């Protein structure tokens, strides 16, 4: 595969050129079950729930589909309930995040034992067509205080066994663990239905190994923090790209290397954001990322690569529908 030419010029993606193009974004990684979208911060109610407004703003910015991430059994159940309230618009993943992998062995969360917890996870993943992927599963060696590496590896392997049985594509997490992640995953890929490595922050070499293995790569604000991150995005082939926000986290901040590419960008619906203590209905909350901001992710990628926003958005649409379906069919 060859890399895409890149430039820091904004001329190739002027906002004027989007006048005749109606974007169709898919946010493949959004954590709408997080209490922050119900106005709860650190266990305390700071403002009224504005989840409906968040979803409305996503639609206003051009998000045609949302994939809500499941990080453990309980959260996956809540995500599926949300999908059932918004049929054909919200889809979900079902799985246990590596940082939550100790839940397999915690009696409080698995009263009948780890085998029953895994069986419940498998049953939930097969329970509805709204479940688009099995995940978020993988390895995270940046946060070993949540789960030791050996526990993460054990339950990553066990969940990959389930994925082979049920035939869903994968929603994957790899952070500072590329060697072990690839060692466990790559030999299984011929028996799996493909997958997305979301919120990618790794090196060029890691990116190319994933791409050459047939995997897709998800880009959000965390993927665009540093100049090194931007160099990776320059080389990421468009036919392997997906877009995400990973809200409420991974916003693009003024201190990030990507911020300079948002010069003259159209404001996100609900802007300007307000502090949670000064919450105003219809406005974004400062420091809380949400799907409406996906337009800025796409714009940064376009400007980094020196291509149009339409090229970025349409490539991501095709890739996402090809892997996850989401009730859509690709144009011939």
Automatic annotation (TrEMBL):
Gene Ontology cellular component list: cytosol
Binding, a divalent metal cation 1: 136, 246
GO molecular function, one term: 3'-5'-DNA exonuclease activity
Entry-linked CDD domains: TatD_DNAse
Name of this chain's protein: Uncharacterized protein
Nuclease is among the record's keywords: yes
Lineage: Eukaryota, Fungi, Dikarya, Ascomycota, Pezizomycotina
Organism: Sphaerosporella brunnea
Keyword Heme attached: no
Family: Belongs to the metallo-dependent hydrolases superfamily. TatD-type hydrolase family.
Binding site for a divalent metal cation 2: 173, 198
Record keywords: Hydrolase, Metal-binding, Nuclease
